[in-house]
Structure formats: C-alpha cells, structure tokens
Amino acid sequence: HKGKYGFTNVGKQELTLVQVSSHNDRVFEHDNNVKDLTMEIVEDKSNIQDKDAAVNLMRQLVNLPETEGERRAHLFHALISTVRGMKIETLKAALPEVVAFSRFLTYQVLAQCGTPECSSAIM
After folding, report:
1. Contact at 8 Å (CB) between 86 and 44?
2. I need a labelling partner for 41 at 20 to 30 A (CA). Which of 21, 54, 87, 112 fits?
3. What are the distances in angstroms from CA 98 to CA 50, 51, 72, 78, 80?
4. Do residues 53 and 82 lie in contact, with contact meaning Cβ atoms separated by under 8 Å?
5. 18-35, pLDDT tens digit by residue?
6. Name one GO biological process term (predicted).
7. 27-61: string of b/e by CB count within 10 Å (b at 16+)?
C-alpha cells in the first residue's frame, strides 16, 4: 500500500497509430428514421373497455406484500398496458376508484402511460 508493503511495479506503454481505414457500416437511411417529438396518436384502442380490470390490478398492486416485490414490476407493467388501451370515457370512470387506493400510484401510472388520454386525466 503506497509503496510501504511488498514491492511495486510501474509499467509504461506507448501506442502509435499506424493506419486508419475508412469504413461505413450503415445499414439504414437516416431520413427514414427521423421522427418528431410530438406524441403519436394511437387509434387501436381495445374494443372491450373494462375499467374493472384496471381497478383490480391497482388493488393487487396496492395490497402486494413487500415480500413479493418481484411481482410488483409485472403488475405495474400490466396496469400501464391496460390503461394505455383505455378510451378517455373508461379512464375517467375508473379514476375515482383507483385514486381511492393510491393517489401516488395513480399519478405514476398516468405519467408513465404517455397517451393523450392519460395526460388529459392528469389534468
């Protein structure tokens, strides 16, 4: 440690760049991948609108014991996927019930959902 115990080796190395070859591995067209930052509207909302599915998932998530933390991520993902598929009417009907379980989790789900319906529900 700091030269007090045992022995110390110091090695020096020098590298010299001999040659560089030009290489271009682009397999995509840049202009085809450019997207604006505006939210894309999802038109394929689920035909079956069930607010009870979201309410039940929120209930399970809130009542999940701390010893079952590995299930939390799965339930949260399922809840967000369910909410993303909801139309605004169904989402508004479910909000009072899920807010009663946990206001914090409700806002977290709505923020991570990211659809215009979820953003409107936050307001």
Report:
1. no
2. 54
3. 13, 10, 16, 15, 13
4. yes
5. 888 776 666 666 666 666
6. cholesterol transport
7. eeeeeeeeeeeeeeeeeeeeeeeebebbbebbeeb
